[in-house]
Amino acid sequence: MTMRRRLALAGLVLAVVAAAWWAVGRDRTPPHYTGFVEGEERVIRSEVTGRVLEVPFAEGAQVPANAVLARLDNADIQTRLAAKHEELDVAEADMRRQQQQVELSDSTWKQDVGARQAELRQAASVLDLAERSLKREEALVATGASTGQLLDDARARRDQARSALDRARDLLRRAEAEEGTIAVARRQLDVLAQRRELTQAEIAQLEVTAAKYDIHAPAVPTTVQTQFIWPGELAQPGTAIVAVLDPTDKYVQVYVPVAEVDRFRVGRRVEIELDSDPGRRFPGEVSFVADQANFTPEKIETRSDRMGQVYRAKVRVLERSPASISCSSGARSWASSGPTAPGRRRSCARWRGSSRSRPRRRPSSATICAAT
After folding, report:
1. How far apart are CA 197 and CA 87, in angstroms?
2. Which helix (H) or strand (E) holds 303?
3. Which pTM was predicted?
4. Using one digit for the tens of pLDDT, what is the confidence trace for 234-254?
């Protein structure tokens, strides 16, 4: 009886140790999640109305940065630009003519004012001399040294000098009043300058619009995914031209169970393995985790997998290797950045899912591997 108890106790201890060892080994197993390698498509749209003349890049073509993706007929905008350029030439000619007129009027006015001021000074001098002469004649007449005739002549000269002074003052006032006419001419010149600036602004706006008739690709090399319009068709503002994809900007969309979301934080480094390149892992980083949980999408075929709630997350592919990482290829990611422990066995199952991209893409299969 004692031997049986000892054997039972030893078996129980071994079972507890084995269970603890299994639990520790299970806790150290890095979690992994499956998904598709996807990319953000950019739909390039027209901003103007025009008939399509050319779409140089077909679907699947590699597009250099800032290349022209489509050309629209810009005959109408070019006609308007030519008319505005002619209007600008006329405005500049009017400005030059008005400027010359202002400069000439200003110069003539200054000369006229100077001459009138000289005449006024001369008339004032003549009047002063005539008044002194009159006073002398009056003194001489009083002493009997001069005649009344000479006194009358002196008085007449004094009166003439006064009239000449008054006329000189009047002419000077008229000359100075001409400055108002010159001010009006300057204001007209300012109006012409404003009209020219307005025309230049309209030309600049038309040039901006004319540049939109050549529809350019983004500032990075891309690949044409879908062509929406062909030469001869009419493009309106907002009409989709092509959809392009940056082949180096990829991510894996995965669904993380609620119980494991604490491990899946934005900024955490992970590793990504492709079904098309098993055994090779690419560095990745968690770039997005949804705020609310939802049920697993229907593209997960196993009903039991769709029962629980999950958080949608994105893992950005950090290694830019477009030749080996293609969109819609199956992938799985590990939340641990270290290598897989040697000797670990994996049980694999296969399923099919469709890409989140546009309907033109074909669904691709991925392999889901769960570490055991």
Report:
1. 11
2. none
3. 0.58
4. 999 999 999 999 887 788 888
